[in-house]
Amino acid sequence: MQAEPTGAPQAVIATKGLTKHYDTVKALLDLTLDVRSGEIFGFLGPNGAGKSTLIRTLLGFLHATEGSARVLGLDIEADSVEIRRRTGYLPGGIALYDSLSGADALDYLADLQDRGAAMREELCERLQMPPSVLRRKVRDYSRGMRQKIGVIQAFQHDPELAILDEPTEGLDPLMQHAFYALMDDQRKKGRTIFFSSHVLSEVERVCDRVAIIRSGQLMALQNVDDLLARRKRKVELRWRGAAPELAGIPGLADVRVDGNKMSATLLGDVSEFVRAIASPSLEDLTIEPARLEEAFLEYYAGDDASEEVRG
Amino acid sequence: MNLRLYLQTLRWNRVRLLAVVLASIGWGILIPVIYVAFADAFKNLANSGAIPKELLNFGSGSLFTLPGALTLGLQHPLAIAFVGIFAVGSTVSSIAGEREAGTLEVLLARPISRRTLYLTLAAASASLIAIVMAALLGGQLIGVAIQGVGDELDLAQMPLVFLNGLMLWSAFAAFGLAASVSFDRHAPAIGLTLAYLLINYFLEILGSLWRDAAWTQQYSLFHHFNPGKILTGKTDPLDFLILAVAIVIPVAYALVVFPRRDLAAPS
Q: Under an 8 A CB cutoff, do A112 and B12 touch?
């Protein structure tokens, strides 16, 4: 599937036919997508699907075999330095300078960024990295603390665009929520976030749009809400007395009746379904929310890689 | 060049640098002491024919004259180790080491071009080499002053000796940096650079100890670092030219190759 870039002038990231081969391995294939200004864009796929390859190509670590891409309106080959000046980047499994303290590492990276560190204090507070912790050497940090330093260094200069590779890896649930709150605030400020993940629940929680990639190819590029609206939901009903005949309700399928209980799957408009089943004999109704996981698994049906993705 | 990166690179090396500088000064002081104590004995030994005169040479140096002794001190394996720590160890680690550790990705996420990164690290390496060379030569001058044999040297030539040494070791550092940008892992880069250094050293020492193999010396970069010749007023501009070429080729290679390389995710 190919999604044509829409509104190119507003696209913070726009790729066109981007292809990357490593010898005989095709890591990215003819990838065309756009990330709009002010949105949080999720890039989904299991390990090895090509997520990090795209990120590394956008930031100039890799050179595209074919195609082109622009970030913040700048060409990724010719203007890579300027792109990196205006971007924050969190690499997957970030490595830091072990001999430096957390504070010194952040100072060093901020100095090299050459844009100050206006957001550091706020970020340290949100991610619970007090000065006493920042004074310790990075080598003494747990994985979660390193990841927090990674998040802080990516955002401390208040970048226009943040590119995050598996940002919540290693964060405890409390810090994951702090991170999600940070994402929400960034959205309110009009900042653009591009992040790759294989944690579907966080993409669903945070992102406006998602792209699903498989073996280097774009499989889907949609609003999260649209993607979910097209998913089947599981519904369960309990009646006072025998379950009535519900055949013919649009979108209802896989109906199973067990005495006064009934389960089915529902595709489409919920309100129409609720109107159709409205009855004084209806005792209980459960409609499970649609999950991104199902959409994802649909694209990866029969692929072992789907097992690497968490819901 | 990026000043912050340059200063941080020097800072990361400061403890090691201090230790090497102190050791270099100590070694430098020792050479004139050895010369004064043993030069006559070695001359007599050589003149007696008890051992071949070649065996009292080492590289381009010897113990028969003060300039020869200073050359020997600068080409001795100890001096090679002192300068090599920075000319080989630090340069190879600078990019391949950061790449292997994963920190290169964090570094290059900043607005620094790969050419700027390379040139900054090259400048830092040259600075570290210059400091160690200055320590070695400074130690030798202190030793010369202590022994009171300064009249055997043309001290005005010392800056040229310094430049000659800086160029020799910068050539090895340039090779090390070129290897560092060419590999994703530290081990092959350091292996290749050490092999380059050892082959050069072997050719020089072999030619100096075995007359039939004297022709091998001209293929060694060490042969073009000859303080003895400079201090006796026989400076050969060709030595400087050859060392300059040995610097320029790997620098040009690295400046072309490094920006074009794919830096895949660290494993």
A: no
Which of B103, B110, B260 has its CB closest to that of A97? B103
| Length in residues, chain B | 267
Specify whether A211 is located in the same domain as A92: yes
Residue A283 lies in a domain: yes
In a domain, A120, yes or no: yes
- Closest approach of chain A CAs to the CA of B267, in angstroms? 10
Range of the domain at A284: 232-289
pLDDT at site B165: 94
Degrees, nearest 5: CA angle A23-A26-A31: 135
Q: Quick check: B110 pLDDT over 80?
A: yes
**Does the pLDDT of residue B3 top 70, yes or no?**
yes
Q: Identify the domain boundary among A181, A204, A227.
A: A227
Q: Which residues of B touch A60 (CB under 8 A)?
A: 108
Whichever domain contains A42, its CATH number is: 3.40.50.300
Residues of chain A with pLDDT under 70: 1-9, 300-311
Distance from CA of B56 to the nearest CA of A (A): 46
Asked whether residue A298 is domain-assigned, the answer is: no
Classify residue A309: in a domain, yes or no. no
In angstroms, what separates the C-alpha of B96 from chain A's closest C-alpha?
Answer: 14
Residue ranges of the domains in chain B? Answer: 3-260
Q: What percent of chain A has a predicted confidence (pLDDT) above 90?
A: 51
Chain A CB contacts of B108 below 8 Å? 59-61, 84
Distance, CA of B28 to CA of B106 (rounded, Å): 41
Give the CA distances from residue A307 to residues A156, A211, A212, B26, B68, in Å, rounded to whole numbers and listed in that order: 35, 18, 15, 63, 71
Q: Does residue A223 share a domain with residue A236?
A: no
Q: Let me know whether A178 and A261 are in one domain.
A: no
Dihedral sign computed on CA atoms, order B225, B227, B232, B237: positive
